[in-house]
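Priority: medium. Attachment 1 of 2:
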């Protein structure tokens, strides 16, 4: 079975009502037509992530992928953990792939959400801020929901973190 190593970021920033989380809506295949001929899709939200390039450390990948997929510059805070899963490649050889994704808590530094390069629109439909509180209920993937819960716990246990926001 082929293996893939990826990394991603849980990017947070503090605002007046509370913490916000940067998420992406990945570009998906068109929805199948319903029995009445209408097309509909549930909004799918995910964390920014991508493959670790040769010679790159996972934490560097997380920062790079966040910049590419959201338009934000963010600083590494701490590793939150790894998620592991197997998926069936939907293109090419349709091979089963074992994937490990390392996630990092990142602190927003600069940039405007969703200001990304045109060639990234193949992968990302939009990037947006959502409230961190309850974000685990809005994300599509179980492992990513767990990473958001870990980020929430970290912020609760480290109140000094909020003092370092730009």
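Attachment 2 of 2:
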């Amino acid at each position: 079975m082929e293996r893939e190593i990826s990394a991603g970021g849980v990017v947070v920033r503090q605002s007046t009502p509370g913490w916000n989380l940067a998420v992406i809506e990945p570009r998906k295949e068109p929805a199948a037509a319903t029995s009445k001929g209408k097309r509909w899709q549930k909004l799918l939200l995910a964390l920014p992530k991508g493959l670790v390039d040769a010679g790159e450390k996972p934490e560097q990948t997380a920062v790079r992928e966040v910049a590419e997929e959201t338009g934000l510059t963010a600083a590494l805070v701490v590793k939150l953990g790894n998620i592991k899963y197997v998926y069936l490649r939907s293109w090419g050889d349709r091979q089963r792939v074992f994937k490990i994704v390392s996630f990092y808590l990142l602190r927003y530094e600069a940039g405007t959400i969703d200001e990304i390069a045109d060639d990234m629109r193949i992968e990302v439909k939009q990037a947006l801020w959502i409230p961190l509180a309850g974000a685990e209920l809005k994300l599509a993937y179980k492992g990513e929901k767990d990473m958001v819960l870990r980020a929430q716990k970290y912020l609760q246990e480290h109140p000094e973190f909020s003092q370092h926001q730009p």
